[in-house]
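On clarity, I found the account of how folds are encoded harder to follow than it need be. What matters is that the chain and its backbone geometry are given together, residue for residue. I therefore recommend that a typical entry be quoted early in the introduction. An entry of this sort, consisting of the sequence and the corresponding backbone structure tokens, reads as follows:
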Amino acid sequence: MNTKLILELLNPKKSEQGFATVLAVGIGLITMIVGLTMVVRSQSSQTNALAQKNTATSVAIAETGMTRTLSELNSKAYSPYLRSSQDPVPLSETTNYLGTNYNQWSSKPEEIGDLCETIETSTSIDALRKKVTIDANKGTAYELLAYVYNKLDIPVLVKDEDGNSITIDDNTYRIGDTKILIRGKKNKGTQDNLASVSNIELTTEVHRRILPASFPGLYASDTIALSGGDILSVESTDSDDANIICGDCNVTASHCDTIANQTTDEAKDTYILQNLMGATSGAVVDGNVYLSAVSMPVLTPPTNECVLSAITQLEQLKSCKITLTSQINSARTLPRATDITALPTSIQSQLTDNSNSYYFNYVFNVTQPDDIKYGGSEVFTIDSGKGGIRLFATGNLTFGGGSSLQHISTNPTTGVVSQGQSERFALIGNVADSNDSNDQNWTMNGGAQTTNMFIYAPDANVQFNGAAGTDPDLFGALWIKNFDNNGNNLQIKVPDDYGQLLGEMYGLDFELGLRIYSTSAPTSWQRKEVN
């Protein structure tokens, strides 16, 4: 046996030296693993922190984009776009963002404000929609991805914080709601090399308000022509209602430059009257003169014929028509006596209400091109004492010679005759279209007697022949396509609060004027998944 080897192996010093080596190596290995773990965890925490920071940055960018976008959409220039939708299909995708596939911002809305405010859709609206750089150094940006407007069937009057309706001087209606999708993007930076994208969807209400002092006593969607010696006086005890709006008037860039150089509103109005409407220096307007396209409401006659003997409630008269089958060319009164006696006795006894809660709808269906044609001194009389009258004329109208149209109100109980309330008689023409060849031609006589009425003919060329000196010739409002005053001193006087009265009689869209659109404070806000 090798005794030396055994003794060497049993030597305690040798044994301890080997164990120490193993122990040192093990401890070092453990320390290295712990160290590496801490390094990895530290790097992961740093990455998560950077990711959270970049996500917060992209959300902040989207919020900034939302604020800026809402600010632009609430501006005078862009507010008409609030009533249309833009939800395109992105180039890299197969579906649109909010499921509607609208591309309504590719052209200007009809109602864009003053005709002298030029808005180039191809550039300015794209600037609103596309990416806008916030920080050029970091490459951060936001983008309006989609905007979808949902119109309310019936506008709702907005209430204040106490739940009270807005006063009539500043009626604001909620007309719809909208969803807006904004993307905020934080691109890779030079230090963190991380990018982040966040989408925010916001819901808000869309409101409509009529600009004060813009209700038109005279509105023409195309042109207004005031001949040589005319004095046009649109006036009211409440001058907010006595305004003129012309939707075209052949406005050129040169006109706009001159208008912009006028130092006062009075000078601007005078320039427009004399240079775009042909008025003389004596033309008077109590309110303002505007050059603006205004959306005309649609008013069509009911389609069902009235069965008068079957009427059980006065309200039913609103939903049916009484057809006139012959031309009116001699003395005539509406409603006809036979229309009243055809009603049940119980209904006839109720024809004492002088409110706007019911009315008769008369609709022409004649073979002649002229529904009304007078050449002598006959009088066509409207008596609204037993109900409002809406006269729908589909053809031409001529009041020649000394003929006239009169609106009276005979009290059913006392028989006392007075002037009829202007909003209770409307002479209504065809719905507007883009075809000039089928326009209606209406020739009216002014001056024989003041006529209290609302003339609404959005597809008609209306000419008023010389006034004879009554003040005014028309007590109400005149809204047509083209207006030609072929005489002198024609005067239109607008009843106070006439927009409200027409709104009650014909619907809220008839509270006409320059409209202001805006969004409310957000009603909901949420982050959306990024596709």
